[in-house]
Design a protein that fits this description.
single chain, 228 residues, alpha+beta, Gyrase A, domain 2, four-stranded antiparallel sheet, 14% strand
């Protein structure tokens, strides 16, 4: 349910970043750049990582998208419940969106939950959730068929309703997003998305991410990369 796939990335992104880092040199297109990229990360020269960008398509729920769009350095496009029926447009995700994890609240850390709820309790709540979601979906469909505008009918859709985001930003923004959201302080479902993005970036800009991972042991805001 919670997935992220690369839309696009600046072609030859690492070379582009390195060329901009050498803007004040006679030969900015020198072949070797791995050491330069690492040096800039180690010394906090992050601005060069704004010279290449990437976009990801994210499938998640409205509850998680609300967390994601708080990252203001990115640009977003999200499925509009005003113009479309998400239960139809995202039918594959919608079929199981109600079957989300039920975890126990950590009594000491409100940012944490643990997967040790009584299975009997989980089963009982899942049965009630399925009935509730089915009733809400049927009511929503009936409202649309009766001519109620989608912008009004959407008010009854639950937070587990599926949504699709296109999220684009600079490589600098992605480095710090994964560094924050890939860590254990982030909700599991959101963390799953961040980890997938981190893995994709590792494939696309391997020299950059190798250096980021080395630096992650020293900087708290990069700690999420230690889980990639």
């Amino acid at each position: 349910m919670h997935t992220a796939e690369l839309d696009w990335i600046t072609p030859d992104a690492e070379r582009v970043i390195a060329r901009h880092a050498r803007v004040s040199t006679k030969n900015p297109d020198r072949e070797e750049f791995k050491g330069l990229l690492k040096y800039c990360i180690n010394h906090g020269h992050w601005s060069i990582y704004e010279q290449a960008s990437a976009s990801f398509e994210i499938i998640t729920t409205r509850s998680i998208s609300a967390q994601i769009i708080r990252h203001r350095s990115f640009a977003f496009q999200e499925t509009s419940q005003r113009y479309c029926d998400p239960t139809s447009v995202l039918a594959e995700a919608e079929s199981s969106c109600w079957d989300f994890d039920l975890r126990r609240q950590d009594e000491k850390n409100r940012q944490n939950s643990t997967p040790d709820l009584d299975p009997v309790l989980v089963k009982a709540f899942k049965e009630r959730i399925q009935i509730l979601y089915s009733d809400l979906k049927n009511t929503y469909t009936d409202m649309l068929e009766a001519g109620v505008a989608k912008e009004c009918a959407r008010n009854i859709l639950p937070m587990c309703s599926p949504t699709r985001l296109h999220m684009s930003g600079s490589i600098r923004s992605w480095i710090h997003y994964v560094g924050l959201r890939g860590g254990v302080e982030t909700q599991l479902e959101h963390r799953t998305i961040a980890v997938e993005i981190g893995k994709a970036l590792e494939r696309e800009v391997p020299s950059v991410i190798e250096a980021v991972k080395e630096q992650a042991a020293k900087e708290f805001n990069l700690k999420g990369w230690l889980f990639i």
